[in-house]
Please model this.
Amino acid sequence: MKSNAMSAEALGLVARRFAVLSDPLRLRLVHSLFEGERNVTQLVELTKGTQANVSRHLQTLAASGVLGRRKEGLMVYYYLQDPTIFQLCDLVCGSLGKQLAAQAEAFAGTSR
Amino acid sequence: MKSNAMSAEALGLVARRFAVLSDPLRLRLVHSLFEGERNVTQLVELTKGTQANVSRHLQTLAASGVLGRRKEGLMVYYYLQDPTIFQLCDLVCGSLGKQLAAQAEAFAGTSR
DNA sequence: AGACTGAATGCTTGTACAAGCATATAGTGG
DNA sequence: CCACTATATGCTTGTACAAGCATTCAGTCT
Model:
């Protein structure tokens, strides 16, 4: 595998993965699953979304491999399936935190 | 800061960061800068995009703090400014690789 | 069987945004 | 000042997709 010439196909997959994580409600859902699996109703309450909307976003997340599904009677439990999600979120949050802190400092510096 | 109740604002920022990385051309641009800064014309050639389109995507990437800009005469050089981008890409690529390998194996298993 | 609950799916509407094309700005040299 | 090169910016069009609402599907209980 050449490291400097990613195929268009691979690029599309990576882009798609990022796109899946680029929605606030989906991020809330992922975040709500950090501490363990939850069924749809619980997720609706936790995220304060509508049932239909939450259900659809869960499909998206599951289809992309981020979440897994487990059916138990009437209820469907979703759980984090991709373990890299934690690190991904940590990285982005850390990076944004640093960036905002730097901006704040630069702003404070303007009055010197 | 409570770790289990991210503000809507913070969530929006994270989502936005992922959204910036969710475009194939932008990923190509980022990838083209892995080995050092490049000016717009070079990036147009490397990514085979149009000048206008490349320029606009570079704006997006720079505005979000992923890239930095350096002007030198007529030319503008862009460079990776957020060091976490490497790790972010590695994580996603690794995760996708595992996922695809697992799928391939599962598929092969169907004929057993 | 019917009534009920949890989850998924049509269908529509509004909005964000990528790409294309033409044009404008900025900087350089004659 | 004019011509030229590098980059950025209007403006338009097409497409993807989130949200809302109603409806359907699936499973449980009597």
